[in-house]
Write a structure and sequence with these properties.
21% strand, Alpha-Beta Plaits
């Protein structure tokens, strides 16, 4: 894993820059981050816009997205598009579609605009119009899409995800495909602009996790491209659910691949985080602002707090965020996710705080048996579950070497091809990778790592139940959905239930520790579960004995 806080003297140049050329718009959308209005009068002049465009082009020949408000509310929008093209920029445009026509479509085609984006927040006209607070918005958008398609313009469909449409994402993805879009791009609602007052329809962390998995499946199976914006946790979720996929999922691109320029010339990470890294009318050098901004560099260096506080409740241990910090600082996925800086700022006033929507390792259901030290170790270390196939005659030697490591807390012999299973803690994953590599070379057998991606149930007091022949238990691994997880966590015979990273030849995302009075009871539990939820892929690994516990 790369160093989180290493200073990059030459930041990566942005691939995409969005330029908010107006805040005028005739729609009154519930979630509008720009607070756009039809009579807005403080747009930049044509010359000011051109100076900003040239400043961007002088630094990097990237994609420039004209956005708003509604860009077509500017009489000079085609002049700005032509100028951007002349500067060597690839031009895209985001439109509401209400004043789009065949003439504009042909002009965009002739100007070489590479993509357009339209928004559909429901497959139902009334629901979409209500969200956009504009009568006829749905039909006008469909008409605009049809015009764009006939003109041969490439376009994507954007959808703002809320409680109102979270269960409709598969239908919306199919609608985007049927309309001829090259991409379906959901956006997670961010509490900025008018959306600050939409807490009643904003997703909870649990609902967010469910949607992440839904979109991951859509991306994996879809015929068109699927992205998920303002949902940085999507990257690790997709990677873990679909490890064999050649499609790429990204976390937050702010301050690295993406920049936003406001209607007043301020350089921002995105349109949802209204903190200026510098104003291009005052400092007409995009490169200087991009490279020298302490604000942008703090985000690039991922200087997120990692403090975790322990608060005991009757049935759980909650890891909360203190002093504006939190899980992002100590998360093993920080490099590919990064958390949402806009949500952190909206919630805490600190853009380096933890993403408040992310639930990864934030709440660990438990019994009172969890030791305080075990909880607090999470703030300064990482851990993984490791498996290996070790020949019987080598087991004593390998077990002794494994148990000699200070980071080994549990080590079990199981009745399976992969017969050695142990938990390894270290300061970071690079240290874990080093240990795995050393073991694999030393004992001439692969040691496989399965780091946890989510904890559903954890009862540490049940460790005493891991000692056959007094009791019978087994590690049960399967591929399962949320309903199956809920069922398993409700079983008194289940002490542990975690999601872990998958591997191409080991595609099981759920790891469950089962306890019973005899082998037949274990078998009955497994057979009932796989039958009830139509589980096709699973493995049962009975525990033979404990080689080390704490």
């Amino acid at each position: 894993m790369s160093e989180k806080n290493s200073v990059n003297p030459c930041p990566k140049k942005p691939r995409i820059v969005a330029f908010e050329v107006t805040r005028r718009c005739k729609m009154n959308c519930l979630h509008c981050r720009a607070l756009a209005q039809s009579d807005f009068k403080d747009d930049l002049t044509t010359d000011q816009c051109k100076k900003i465009i040239k400043s961007v082009a002088d630094y990097n020949k990237c994609v420039l997205i004209f956005t708003g408000g509604e860009p077509f509310e500017r009489d000079d929008i085609f002049d700005l598009i032509d100028f951007a093209n002349s500067c060597g920029l690839a031009v895209s445009l985001a439109t509401c579609g209400y004043n789009f026509d065949a003439k504009k479509a042909q002009m965009l085609k002739q100007a070489g605009v590479i993509t357009l984006s339209f928004s559909l927040d429901s497959d139902n006209a009334k629901e979409h119009d209500n969200f956009r607070q504009t009568a006829g918005a749905f039909e006008k958008t469909l008409a605009a899409i049809d015009i764009a398609k006939k003109a041969g313009l490439k376009f994507q469909i954007n959808t703002t995800v809320t409680k109102l449409n979270a269960d409709k994402l598969p239908q919306l993805a199919k609608l985007a495909e049927n309309l001829g879009a090259y991409c379906f791009n959901p956006f997670m609602l961010v509490p900025a602009g008018r959306a600050q007052g939409l807490s009643d329809i904003a997703l909870t962390s649990k609902e967010y996790e469910k949607v992440l998995k839904t979109v991951a499946d859509l991306k994996s199976q879809g015929k068109i491209e699927v992205r998920f914006t303002c949902a940085p946790r999507f990257a690790p979720v997709y990677e873990n659910l679909h490890p064999q996929s050649k499609k790429k999922a990204f976390g937050c691109l702010a301050a690295t691949d993406f920049a936003f320029i406001s209607h007043s010339g301020d350089v921002q990470t995105c349109g949802f985080l209204k903190i200026s890294a510098g104003n291009l009318l005052q400092t007409p050098d995009f490169g200087k602002v991009w490279e020298k901004s302490e604000f942008l560099n703090a985000i690039r260096q991922k200087k997120f707090s990692g403090k975790l506080a322990r608060h005991s409740l009757s049935s759980s241990v909650v890891l909360t965020k203190e002093d504006g910090g939190g899980g992002c600082g100590s998360c093993n996925y920080v490099d590919i996710c990064g958390g949402c800086r806009a949500r952190a700022f909206a919630k805490t006033g600190d853009y380096l705080a933890s993403d408040p929507l992310c639930s990864y390792l934030s709440v660990i259901p438990a019994q009172a048996g969890i030791r305080a030290a075990t909880v607090m170790e999470r703030s300064s270390s990482v851990s993984t579950l490791i498996a290996a196939h070790v020949e019987q005659d080598k087991l004593p030697v390998v077990a002794d070497v494994v148990n000699s490591l200070p980071g080994i807390s549990h080590n079990y012999l199981r009745n399976h091809h992969y017969n050695l299973w142990f938990t390894l803690k270290a300061s970071d994953f690079s240290q874990i990778d080093k240990t795995i590599d050393e073991f694999s070379k030393k004992f001439k057998t692969p040691f496989l790592s399965f780091p946890a991606t989510k904890c559903h149930k954890l009862d540490s007091s049940a460790v005493k139940r891991h000692s056959p022949p007094q009791v019978f238990n087994a590690l049960f691994c399967c591929r399962a959905d949320e309903a199956a997880v809920k069922f398993l966590c409700g079983l008194p015979q289940v002490s542990h239930c975690l999601e872990r990273k998958t591997l191409p030849h080991w595609p099981y995302n759920l790891y469950v520790m089962l306890h019973a009075q005899n082998p037949q009871q274990l078998k009955d539990i497994v057979e009932n579960f796989v039958r009830k939820f139509n589980i096709e892929k699973f493995q049962t690994l009975p525990t033979v004995k404990s080689l080390k516990t704490f």
